[in-house]
Design the sequence.
């Protein structure tokens, strides 16, 4: 499955039986140089739309919201150690967390790549 | 449109250079260029950054009590402005700059500003003022009304202001304006460049050696392009300007200094000249001098958070035993330090360097230490070392 996107610029992409979550390339560009990332602990559960992580650039701090409900099964320590990776490859190696979805049908409410590209171009 | 954003004389150049523009103090200003905030910050520390600071207010204050250039003209204009600022202006040398503050009757800071005594004899009785963009209208109105009958203010809104900051700045400016490289920190000299009158001041807002060059608006773009043509020079936006000044421990007016704090509380008591301490005669002198003698209740301090999370403006500061002792007034990531830096006001009993405090960030207590400023050493040019 390809990635689905929220209006807050998070993405969710299926990877086996979990979803890889992160921020879009567009969001990383808008943030500018990322200098700090705070991720949730493994095992925590979130509802769709909850504050889940924090990303700070040289300019400002931004909340990252859970795009779908579920349990954190893995957090990407590499971006905590090296926040600049978020600017390099936000939709690839610099993913934030992996979530075990509580209700995979929530994905249907998110934008597909084409819809998100149009949305990002306007915002 | 009354609310239309104002533009500096370098506006078209910013767009041509690919700047991301934001609204700042009523102006459309570059927050960053394609190099990005981190890159621009490091470039300024390593080479030279060019900043458009034309939004700031420039003005000439001239005595009306005595003819300009005649004996006593400087003393007259200095005595007039000294009723509003605590700085030693009378004994400022020709070609000297002074960093000082405009005060309200309670000793609160209305703005911080630079006052320059021109180098030429014929300019005796004139002072050159540079004030902050957001406060310039109020500052100029206050100065005009308070000094009516003693001095008149000629607002130089037809001039641009370009800062060139960093270790390569002196070489670049000296090639353009031979001799400027020998000017020492906090001095100015007039230059003529392509028949434009330039006011060249060795000062800045980054902690680095550098210059601020006041130029006629119509010459500004040509001057900026000439400076940018040097390989060492890159344009730098407001984003890096803020991280550079924060690492240098320099105050941002409206955040670190406000009408609610005095120069003593603001930890800039050095702006009060020795003679002024003895004579008083500036707004709020009694309160300020009492604070200076007895110590203030609160003080602006540097803060170094442990770990990587930046603490930003507004974050509560708590003592190690959980009392609220103040708030962060500026904070962010210091690219040269490679970690978060902040400044804020704390109760005086917690102001000693090394004191452990907590900064409340997103509801969590972030351990931090009170630290001496600057966080990154200043590298001002004070003249050739004599060996």
Sequence:
């Amino acid at each position: 499955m390809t990635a689905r996107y929220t209006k807050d610029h998070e993405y969710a992409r299926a990877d086996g039986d979990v979803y890889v979550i992160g921020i879009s390339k567009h969001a990383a560009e808008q943030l500018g140089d990322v200098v700090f990332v705070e991720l949730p602990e493994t095992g925590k559960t979130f509802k769709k739309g909850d504050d889940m992580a924090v990303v700070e650039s040289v300019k400002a701090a931004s909340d990252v919201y859970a795009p779908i409900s579920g349990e954190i099964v893995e957090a990407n320590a590499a971006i905590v150690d090296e926040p600049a990776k978020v600017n390099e490859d936000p939709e690839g190696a610099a993913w934030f967390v992996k979530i075990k979805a509580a209700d995979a049908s929530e994905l249907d409410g998110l934008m597909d790549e084409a819809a998100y590209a149009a949305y990002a171009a306007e915002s | 449109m009354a609310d239309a954003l104002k533009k500096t004389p370098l506006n078209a150049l910013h767009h041509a250079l690919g700047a991301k523009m934001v609204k700042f103090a009523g102006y459309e200003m570059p927050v960053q260029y394609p190099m990005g905030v981190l890159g621009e910050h490091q470039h300024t520390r390593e080479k030279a950054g060019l900043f458009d600071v034309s939004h700031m207010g420039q003005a000439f204050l001239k005595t009306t009590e005595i003819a300009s250039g005649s004996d006593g003209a400087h003393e007259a204009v200095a005595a007039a402005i000294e009723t509003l600022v605590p700085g030693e202006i009378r004994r400022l040398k020709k070609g000297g700059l002074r960093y000082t503050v405009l005060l309200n009757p309670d000793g609160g800071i209305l703005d911080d500003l630079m006052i320059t005594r021109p180098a030429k004899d014929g300019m005796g009785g004139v002072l050159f003022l540079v004030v902050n963009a957001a406060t310039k209208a109020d500052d100029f109105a206050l100065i005009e009304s308070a000094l009516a009958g003693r001095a008149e203010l000629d607002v130089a809104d037809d001039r641009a202001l370009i800062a060139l900051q960093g270790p390569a700045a002196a070489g670049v400016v000296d090639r353009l304006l031979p001799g400027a490289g020998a000017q020492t920190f906090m001095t100015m000299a007039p230059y003529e460049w392509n028949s434009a009158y330039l006011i060249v001041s060795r000062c800045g807002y980054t902690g680095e050696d550098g210059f601020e060059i006041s130029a006629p608006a119509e010459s500004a773009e040509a001057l900026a392009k000439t400076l940018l043509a040097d390989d060492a020079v890159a344009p730098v936006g407001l984003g890096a300007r803020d991280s550079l000044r924060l690492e240098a421990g320099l105050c941002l007016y409206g955040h670190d200094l406000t009408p609610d704090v005095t120069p003593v509380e603001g930890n800039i008591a050095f702006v009060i000249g020795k003679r002024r301490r003895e004579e008083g005669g500036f707004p709020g002198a009694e309160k300020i001098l009492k604070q200076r003698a007895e110590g203030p209740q609160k003080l602006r301090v540097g803060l170094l958070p442990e770990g990587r999370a930046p603490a930003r403006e507004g974050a509560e500061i708590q003592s190690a035993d959980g009392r609220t002792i103040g708030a962060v007034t500026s904070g962010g990531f210091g690219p040269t330090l490679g970690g978060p830096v902040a400044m804020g006001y704390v109760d005086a009993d917690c102001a000693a360097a090394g004191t452990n405090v907590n900064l409340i960030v997103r509801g969590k207590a972030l351990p931090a230490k009170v630290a001496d400023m600057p966080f990154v050493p200043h590298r001002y040019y004070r003249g050739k070392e004599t060996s």
The mean pLDDT of chain B is 96. Chain B touches chain A at residues 31-32, 36-39, 41, 239-240, 243, 308-310, 312, 332-333, 335, 340, 362 (CB under 8 Å).
